[in-house]
Design brief:
By secondary structure, the protein is of the alpha+beta class. It has 9 helices and 19 strands. A hairpin with a 2-residue loop joins strand 2 and strand 3. The structure holds S-adenosylmethionine (SAM). S-adenosylmethionine binds next to strand 9, helix 5 and helix 8.
Length: 366
């Protein structure tokens, strides 16, 4: 973790291309290249430790190092742990869960694979279809690392991967924007069906994000999963032991064991009412910070620490969203004006519900 130790804390308003936005006793914020970055100040006896705040991630990891090195030049720095120019190459391939809310996507055909595992199917599709953008979603980090390495080795530039729960990631995708969705050999979880990827909420999202004519393909070796999914999906075509061009590691194993393989293919035929989703509004009313706590069904909203910057400015940490994947955000209260510090939460339904509750709770307190 990059950090510096310093004897004094007197920072100028501007250091080259860095602007010191605000500074309190325990935190300070800088703006670099149009992006806000938060740093913690820890009192360590006769000196201070300065390090970046871990929940506020920047677009490039090297930016933290860059800012700290600039700051260390103007302070009475005793120790520093900074490595410049250590940008990771994978920056292009691995995306954040807010990708679809924040970026304009140049591809007209976008396809998704949920739980790509070794990535064999995804890599092969991407290599054979350079004009299509493929999004791979995986909760298992080593699979993400492995496919990034393969993309680099094989010069594949039309894959993006996200390390997130597909059920929540789908909530962030624009309606009617996806051409194809693959779900191959999901874990059946027959004894704990609520853990499955293919649950009722997921199907609603699949239907919402697919273009008309777009399709969703489930491939499984598990008869119970297949039958349950048929009931959930409804109008779809089914196959047994259909041959496909690219088989995965799991498929090869089931075929060696002579197990049946079931496919369900759902094609979207028309636009439905639930697809006209308004843009999520993450604004607040004018207010002041207070401690707050809410936990009901699977939504949590909880304030953590409130930093006083001065008598007019406060920064409040909050944990918010689905209890299964809550986000840690900061809210800046600047002379009554309130906004999310650095960036909005990921634009999922759960976060929007949490935001609405949070806004209400803050208003109630004032
Ligand atoms: C049985 S493996 C199948 C892998 C690959 N599709 C294949 O056919 O070889 C299931 C994969 O789904 C991933 N997975 C499970 N739940 C997930 C979720 N909610 N979101 C994204 N990936 C998930 C697992 O980490 C695992 O890699």
């Amino acid at each position: 973790m990059p950090h510096i130790y310093t004897k004094n804390l007197t920072l100028p308003d501007v250091i080259d291309d860095i602007k010191i936005d605000f500074i309190g006793e325990e935190v300070f914020s800088v703006i670099c290249d149009g992006e806000e970055a938060l740093f913690l100040i820890k009192n360590r006896g006769n000196e201070y430790l300065i390090k970046s705040e871990k929940h506020t991630r920047l677009s490039k990891t090297s930016k933290i190092q860059y800012i700290l090195s600039k700051i260390s030049n103007v302070l009475d720095t005793t120790t520093k742990n900074i490595k410049l120019n250590s940008e990771i190459k994978s920056g292009q391939i691995e995306i954040r869960p807010n990708y679809f809310c924040k970026n304009k996507i140049d591809y007209t055909n976008i396809q998704i694979e949920v739980g790509f595992g070794t990535g064999r199917h995804l890599l092969s599709l991407a290599k054979n279809n350079p004009d299509i953008l493929f999004i791979g979603i995986e909760i298992y980090k080593p699979s993400i690392e492995k496919i990034i390495k393969q993309c680099e080795l094989q010069n594949i530039d039309n894959i993006r991967v996200v390390n997130y729960d597909a059920r929540l990631f789908f909530e962030t995708i624009e309606s009617l924007s996806i051409d194809k969705i693959f779900l191959h050999f999901p874990i059946p979880w027959n004894d704990a069906k609520h853990r499955r990827v293919l649950i009722d909420k997921f199907i609603v999202e699949v239907d919402r994000i697919l273009k008309v004519g777009g399709s969703f393909e489930l491939r499984t070796d598990d008869k119970i999963y297949f039958e349950d999914s048929k009931l959930l999906i409804g109008d779809s075509i089914e196959y047994i032991n259909r041959n496909i061009d690219i088989t995965s590691k799991y498929e090869d194993r089931w075929r060696r064991e002579e197990k049946d393989i079931y496919d369900l293919i759902y094609t979207k035929k028309e636009i439905k009412d639930n697809e006209k989703r308004d843009k999520i509004d993450f604004s607040f009313d004018r207010s002041t910070p207070k401690e707050l706590y809410y936990l009901e069904s699977d939504i949590i909203v909880k304030s953590t620490k409130i930093y006083k910057i001065n008598s007019d400015i406060y920064l409040m940490g909050v944990v918010m969203g689905s209890v299964y994947s809550a986000e840690y955000k900061y809210i800046l209260f600047d002379r009554g004006d309130v906004r999310y510090y650095q960036s909005y939460p990921i634009c999922s339904n759960s976060n929007y519900i949490a935001h609405t509750i949070l806004r209400g709770l803050i208003n109630e307190c004032n």
